[in-house]
Structures are given as structure tokens and as C-alpha cells.
Amino acid sequence: MHAQSEKLEPREFSALLRGETETFAAWSGHWNTRRLASRLAIIVIGAGLYGAAMGWWRAPQQGVYVAAKFPLIILLTTLGNALINGMLAPLLGLNIPFRQSFSAIVMSHAITAAILGAFSPLIGFVIWNAPAMTTGMAGASTYSLILLIHVAVIALAGIAGNLRLFQLLATISGSRLAASRVLFAWLAGNLFLGSQLSWILRPFIGSPDLPVQFYREGALHGNFYEAVFHALQRILTLN
Amino acid sequence: MNENNPVPPQIPSAEAAQRLAEKITTPPPTPPLSGPRPLGDDPAERVAIPHAFAAIEALLRHPRRLMFQLRQPGAGKLIGGMLFVALVCAAVYGVVAGTFTGGQQLWMAPVKIAAGLFISAAICLPSLYIFTCLSGSQARLAEVCGLLAGLLMLMTILLVGFAPVAWIFSQSTDTLAWMGFLHLVFWFVATLFGVRFMKSGFSHTNAKSHAGLNVWIIIFLLVALQMTTALRPIIGKADTFFPTEKKFFVGHWLDCMKVHDNNEWKTEKRD
After folding, report:
1. What is the dihedral of CA A87, A90, A93, A95, to 10 degrees?
2. A84: chain B residues, CB-CB within 8 Å
3. DSSP assignment of B6-26, as one string?
4. Number of domains in chain B
5. Contacts of B244 (CB under 8 A, 6+ apart)
6. Interior/surface letters B115-124, b for 16+ CB within 10 angstroms, e for the rest
7. Which of B61, B85, B170 should one mutate to test binding to chain A, selecting the residue with the greatest count of A CBs within 10 A?
8. Which of A90, A83, A186 shows the shortest CA–CA distance to B60?
9. d(CA B10, CA B1)
């Protein structure tokens, strides 16, 4: 079993998506650099392709930028939270080594990225059929439609990745309660940091009124949660 | 007597009647209390903790091993190692907190955070020992010190875990009040886990009640929060190392919020 898990096979990609938790558990138990590299490649390619499709609507250059930014956010979130996620797992009832928790999270992100990559041709097709990005009412409705499609696809990919992660954690720990606790803590941390990294690296879809940029001027002045707070403050003040 | 059993029931003798009466009046033997599993019943828990890294590993993965070792004679060295880890981790987190302002705060923040944490613990240690004794606990002072060291070590290790996230926010946020809030959230989460370890340790000391410990936890939280105000600024700029004005932490927070609101409305940017 150990020898099998060390060998890197092409069918691993499909096994990853099928959610063969016993196989997952065996993989995550043994550190394999080639396997980790393949997961990272899936993240870079899958999320990169989706990012390219997302940014293409504004301009091809924006597509290139978002193709680089999308995987970057996933990788930076994984690295930034690696330490605290590794510490929280045993404290919440899942006594796994640091590298196993890291490997499990990378695996779930690889599943998410693979789904995003699979949807990238569909998004590309939608963008190809969409009218050019313009200001005004007509442009606004198209923008809203495309935004909703992105939300739906990213939510689907995220849910699938986390569902597989939950199944893996439940298999390793033998307890659904411990798996739920750990998954919730990891999710909270990843959402918290991921939102801020997305805020720093904005724009993604882009805006017809603003130039194509890798990141906005003043990206490092302010944070996502302050922006949400001030948006709420404005709504409440207007009401 | 019935159809299936034609033999009449025998009348018990006086001796048998007395035995029966004793059986009825004497309460049944008390089953063992369903308390926590005694420390050290697993041979793995009896393995000595040779150095500080092993203590970190034990605290995160096998806290019972650490609790058992804290009860053994000569636990002073282990406690010293734990306090050293807590000191280093507090300093590391302090440097990250200091990057928000930079300059002199890069050394002031680690000094203030580490000193604040240790002074809070030292101030609260006597009351902790008194409360544990009042609750009927059999813990010795050394064991109480060990559990407090465990609380500090777990808190600071978790803070180091949060450090990369704190650093990203420090580099991308301008608002002092927001960063202060974020550090408090991280501190609170870390303290929750530390307190959980401590309570778990006290459950093995035959304490009759946890009420005293719960009161002490509230005291410790209040002292630590006040320490952040007494040693301010930890993340902002200042001309002096210590503050020139004395305040309670709630008043200080309210003042920070007022300053933040005024500045925010003046300098609000839209993208």
C-alpha cells in the first residue's frame, strides 16, 4: 500500500475528483514531493485558466493578469494559514501531523481548481457571446449576469472541494464531529485571509471606467472588512 | 406456592433476616466516578519530555502527557522551558505586530507584548493558587505554575500561527483601530485554547468545583486587556515608551474609535 501510494499515476487526477477517501487518506499520510507538485500544478493551471476567462471580458491583458492572480490567491492563502491550520487540527480533535494537514488542504484546493479549470471553456464561451464591457444600463445588466455566473461556478467548485476535504477528514479521524470542527476552523481562516488577499489583488472582472492593472493603486491601503463595514455604514446612513 | 412449584416458601431464619435487612439499608458500593481518565494510565504519557520542542509537540498533540509530566518531581526544568518558548513566541508575534508602524515599534512591540503577558501572569498567579485551593484542588504550587506556563505557551504558539495573517493585514491596512481589533481577536482565540488546556489540567486535580477557576479566568482576561492599555501604544506611534496618561482599557478603546471615525469620514476614498 505504501509503495502504491508513493507511485504517481495519471489516474490519480480522476481519483481525486471521485473522492476516493481511502486513497486520499493513504496519500495524505505519506509526504510525496512529486504528488504535491502535481497538486500545485493543477491549482496553477485550473485556477489560471478560469482567471484568464474571467479577465478576458475587460481586455486580453486583464485576462493574463487574472490568470496569474487567481492561483496566487489560492497558494498564498494556503501558505499563510498553513501554520495555524496545522496547530488547530490536533487542538480540535484531529491528531494529524502538520504536513498531513497541509497536504489535505492542498488536495481540496486542487479539486476546486480542477473544477474551475473545467468550467473555464464555458466561461470563455459566455464571455465570447457577451457584448463588450460598457457603462450604462445595458452594460450593467450584462455585468450582473456574468458576476452571478462567476459566483455560481466558484461556489460550486468551493463546495465540492470542501465536501471532499470533509470526507477525507472524517475518514482520517473516524469522527464526523471532529472533522466538522476542523473543517469549520480551516474554512473560517481561509475565508478570512482569502478575502483580504482578493481585496489586495483586485480587480478581477475589471471595470470599463478604470484602467487595466495588475492591482489598483492603493491596494495596500485599507482592507476588505473595513470596506464592507463602510458600505454597511453608508447604507444605514442613507436609510 | 403455585401449580408449578408445590414446595412452600421457607421462612428465613433470624440471621438471614438480619443479613437481608443490612443488605437493604446499606447503600450499594459506589461505582467509580465518571471523571477524567487518570493521568499516566497510558504508557505514552509517562515518556519524559526532553526539550522545549517536545513540549510544543506534546502541548498540541498529547496535552495529557504534558499534564502528567508537570506533576512529576523535577518539573521545574520543563516549566522553565515552556516559559522560554512562550517568551520567544511572544517576541516573534510582537515583531509582526510592530511591522504595522515600523521604526522603533519593531523592538518596542515585542518587548511590551512579552512583558505584558508575563507581568499579567505573575500578577494573577497568587489568586490562581488561592482559587484552586478554595475549590478543593490537590494541585501543588509547582503544578499550578506549570498549568499557567502551559496556558502562556499555547497562547503564544497560536499567536505565532496567526502571525502570517497578521503580517498581511499589517502591510495592507492603514487603520490603527482595525489592526488593534484584529490583534485582539487573535489574542482572544489563542487565549480560549490556552484556557481550555488549563481547565483540562485542573480537572485532574480533584477540584470539587470549577467556579473559582472560571472567576480567575475572567480576572486574567481583564488584567491582560488592561495591560494592553497600560503599555500602550503597542502598535501605534508614541514619543515615550510608557503612556503619559492613565486610562482604563474600555475608555482607551472608545477614544480610539472616536479618532478612527473622525479620520475616516475626512479621508474616505472610493474605488
Report:
1. 150
2. 158, 161-162, 164-165
3. -SPPPPPPHHHHHHHHHHHHS
4. 1
5. none
6. bbbbebbeeb
7. B61
8. A90
9. 10
Domain that holds residue A188: 2-238
Report chain A residues whose CB lies below 8 A from the CB of B158: 84, 87
In a domain, B86, yes or no: yes
- Is A90 at the interface with chain B, CB within 8 A? yes
pLDDT tops 70 at residue B212: yes
Give the pLDDT mean for B225-235.
Answer: 88
What does the pLDDT read at residue B12? 53
Q: Is residue B271 part of a domain?
A: no
Check A220 against B178: CB less than 8 A apart: no
Ranking B7-11, B157-161, B234-238 by mean pLDDT, the lowest is: B7-11
Domain assignment present for residue B262? The answer is: no
> Domain tally for chain A?
1
* Cβ neighbours of B172 in A, within 8 Å: 196, 199-200, 219-223
> Of B163, B169, B193, which has the smallest distance from its Cβ to A196's Cβ?
B169
* Residue B162 touches chain A, beta carbons under 8 Å: yes
Structural domain containing residue B92:
47-232
Percentage of residues in chain A having pLDDT higher than 70: 94
Question: Considering chain B, what percentage of its residues have pLDDT values greater than 70?
Answer: 83
Would you state the pLDDT for residue B1? 40
What is d(CA A39, CA A170) in angstroms, rounded to the nearest whole number? 21
Min Cα distance B161 → chain A (Å) is 4
Residue range B14-43: mean pLDDT, rounded: 60
- Mean pLDDT taken over chain A: 87
Closest in B172, B193, B268 to A196, CB measured: B172
Q: Which of B165, B193, B271 sits opposite A80 (nearest CB)?
A: B165
B13: pLDDT confidence band, cut at 50, 70 and 90? low
Nearest to A123 by CA among A139, A146, A142: A146
Among A121-130, A161-170, B236-245, name the one with the lowest average pLDDT: B236-245
Q: Which residue has the cell 471553456?
A: A121
Query: Quick one: closest CA in B to A218, which residue?
Result: B172
Residue B264 scores a pLDDT above 60: no
pLDDT of residue B14: 57
What does each C-alpha distance from A168 to A22, A84, A105 come to in angstroms?
A: 8, 19, 10
SS3 B251: helix
- Assigned domain for B151 exists: yes
The count of other CB atoms within 10 Å of the CB of residue A209 is: 8
CA atoms of B64 and B57, how far apart (whole Å): 12
